[in-house]
Amino acid sequence: MLVEKMKAVAEHTFTEVVYDVLQAPLQNLTDTLAGAVIIVVLMSVMWWCGIHGAAILMGIKGPLLTANALQNQALLDAGETFLAGENAKIVTIQFLDVFTKLGGSGITIGFIIATLIVARSAHLKQLGKLSLAPSLFNINEPVIFGMPIVFNPIMFVPLVIVPAIASFMVYFSILWGWVDPFNALQVPWTTPPVISGFLIGGWRAALLQIATIAMAVAVYLPFVRMQDLVSYGEELKAQEDADKASA
């Protein structure tokens, strides 16, 4: 028995063995709803700790998710019909880059829009105005470190649950046929929301991005109100102290 297994291994190249033993199982794990949620949650937790979660995790998962997209492209090239959840992969590199990281990890564009809607504190108002433009190009460091969201207990919950909810939205939109599975077509990560969705999936993917942003705003809104109360109170106290000092 052992000899037969050794012969079987010897008949394959090292690359084929690595693919069969490591990449294929990991790739199948990435193409699950649980796998997608775990990736985005870990990414957000790392960002909350001040660590660039995308740079760390995507170095490992990026090639596997890209392989999922290339597998879908192979189906198209072969003239086969996409069947999401069967022959076509749902969780691809576009799934994360274009949908669950809208405006940056944690979909913090929802936080920015929420601050522009309800914030009274000068700090949050100014932060929202200054961060909006970078966020449209999926750059959210001004929010992550300028708020700061890093080690901010109020912001931990929305930072984690918003991309998790987005994963559910995107996964079932593809599984139920609203949006087609993604192929090898990719866009630069700085492509603004709605435009990026339209380019890779047409108007339905663009509409899904709009719905995702609306969800993010709704979830961030109560937490922004709580943060605004804290920041506004601190500003009032600082003003009172300044008035007393100058009296």
From TrEMBL:
Q: Which organism is it from?
A: Exiguobacterium mexicanum
Name recorded for this polypeptide: PTS transporter subunit EIIC
Top-rank lineage group of the source organism? Bacteria
Q: Where are the transmembrane segments?
A: 33-60, 102-119, 154-178, 198-221
User: InterPro entries given for it?
Assistant: PTS_EIIC, PTS_EIIC_3, PTS_Sugar-EIIC/EIIB
Query: Where's the PTS EIIC type-3 domain?
Result: 1-223
Q: How does it sit in the membrane?
A: Multi-pass membrane protein
* Pfam families with a match to the protein in the record: PTS_EIIC
Alphabetically ordered keywords of this record: Cell membrane, Membrane, Sugar transport, Transmembrane, Transmembrane helix, Transport
Localization terms from the record: Cell membrane
